Amino acid sequence: MRVVLDTQVWVRGALSKDPDAIGSVILRAARAGVFDCVGSVALVDEIARILEASHVAPKTTRDDAVAALQLAIALMQLVEIEGIVLGIEDPHDNHVLEAALVGKTELIVTHDGDFHDKLPAKVRDMLKCAGISVVLDSEFCGQLRAEPLMINVEVDRIAALPYLTLTQQNDHDDKWTARFVGLQTRKSKGEIETVDLAGEGDTPDAAAANLYDAWLTWIREQLENGVRIFPPKVHV
Q1: In the predicted structure, residue 54 carries a pLDDT above the cut 60
Q2: DSSP states along 145-165
Q3: Does domain 2-150 have CATH number 3.40.50.1010?
């Protein structure tokens, strides 16, 4: 089964600390391969923007934000969309719908109870012709809980945060360097390349913040160029 999860489902699930929460159950099922997640670079970009938004950032640590974004990148099967204007009230829903249509999915899972009703009639007809249904995350979660596969599933958590190191450049310099180690990419010819990202700052927090910004930029560039990204896996 191929599914598009909207941005709120991704963010709520990835940031939740409750394993029985709706979003947690949905993403756990995705990790276990119960369904395939379909998305686009635009969806990943929107997830990043929400994680950086003022109403989310104060409640979220930088590590949690990195973890949430990396999880989406690791689980999503990206499809190429063209940004077709479908005449939707909320333009941010446009890429969700287009990814569902291009990715030949069966479901759009949303946290917005009015999502379907807000769609223009022509868009609802397009979804119907394509065999795509819109369901609430709570309804989808209920379906997943009924699946025998979900009863005792145990999977590795995808490490959203590669090894993070913080070092002072020298004893006489206040500059700090933050570095991610452990990311790998697969190039078009199949070669695996290990990536070493770094950020500098006058304090450890400033260095980590600059590293995070560089990491987001790098992720977006890789996705736009069609490069596959492999986060390391750890047991938790």
Answers
A1: no
A2: HTSGGGSS---PEE-SS-EEE
A3: yes
pLDDT in tens, 8-29: 999 888 888 888 889 988 988 8
Given the structure tokens 């009863």, which residue do they identify? 151
**Encoding tokens for residue 210?**
């600059």
CA distance 22 to 2: 19
Tell me which residue has tokens 């310099």: 173
215 near 209, Cβ under 8 Å?
no
Where are the chain's structural domains? 2-150, 162-234
Q: What would the pLDDT profile of 142-164 be if each residue is shown by its tens digit?
A: 888 776 544 333 333 333 344 56
Question: Other C-beta atoms within 10 Å of 37: how many?
Answer: 24
pTM for the full model? 0.66
> Hey, which of 23-32, 80-89, 155-164, 205-214 has the most confident mean pLDDT?
23-32
The DSSP-derived string for 35-89 is: SEEEE-HHHHHHHHHHHHSTTTGGGS-HHHHHHHHHHHHHHEEE----------S
